[in-house]
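G., the chain you wanted modeled:
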Amino acid sequence: MVGATGAVGTVMLSLLDERPDIWGEIRLIASGRSAGRKLRVRGEEVEVLALAPAVFDGVDIAMFDVPDEVSKQWAPIAASRGAIAVDNSGAFRMDADVPLVVPEVNADAVTDRPRGIISNPNCTTLSMIVALGALHRVFGLESLVATSYQAASGAGQAGIDTLYAQLSTVAGDGGLGQSAGDVRKAIGADGLGPFPAPLALNVVPWAGSPRDGGWSSEEMKIRNESRKILGIPGLKVSATCVRVPVVTTHAVAVHAWFSRPVTADAARAVLHAAPGMAVLDDPAAGEFPTPADVVGTDPTWVGRIRQSPDDPHELALFVCGDNLRKGAALNTLQIAELLVSRDQ
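Predicted structure as tokens:
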């Protein structure tokens, strides 16, 4: 596991403790400054090794939870030493020779990996794609409009630290948020962290970096990755990504159009039966998924399932998924487990 000491790596270690033990030796890899640390894995203390070509010798599967530039350099090295690299970064997601895999949706894609690398989708895409994959198999997805509500942890530990610091700043002033610019002034330019605007007492309609036409990189990831995972190159996708003052767990409001008519009851039945899904959908009783209720769990949660009153082919739904678990560490680990089960 490369990136064992990072935020996603920490979640990965906990998942290794929770899931069936199908592994032999587990090697923990990190940067040189973390080498020598000891982390507990399955009840044993394991020393962290510094990233170097030799650490991949004899390794079957190398899971990468590191920044794009690190994966871009080292995943091919791992593959050249005989390992299958399962990469959680964005370095290879749109590479035609690297499958982009969600085991519940396109498990067979793991067998076609010319470069010896398998890519893990973006956490926002993963928050909704398990549900959309299940519905697509039955009703035929044709177009998609998605609005994400993305947690601060999607911006890494800096995002989490910034949100907590901002909350501490605004919590003692009951008058903030009632005048234009007062929250921004209270937090100050140095308190924005990785966000372009205050996150506390606010929502920020931007996540990622600029792309052509005013779109953000996060919005383009939803478009391009959904097409690749579902195998629908011409899928019409329009996304708006919004950062919200939540620590962990992304939510997405989805409007989807299908080639076949779909009722809310039919959609619920499909989603109830789908692997990796949990349906919580009784708004009259106050039952629907929220980040505060979903954080720390593995499934994709779905609720607010509605058929359009104007179009029998349109379905609206609200999905939530822990962006550090299914959105990152869990999906990576599931891909590795899939490889083991198929003796790949």
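Residues 123-139 form the longest helix (17 residues).

Shout if anything looks off.
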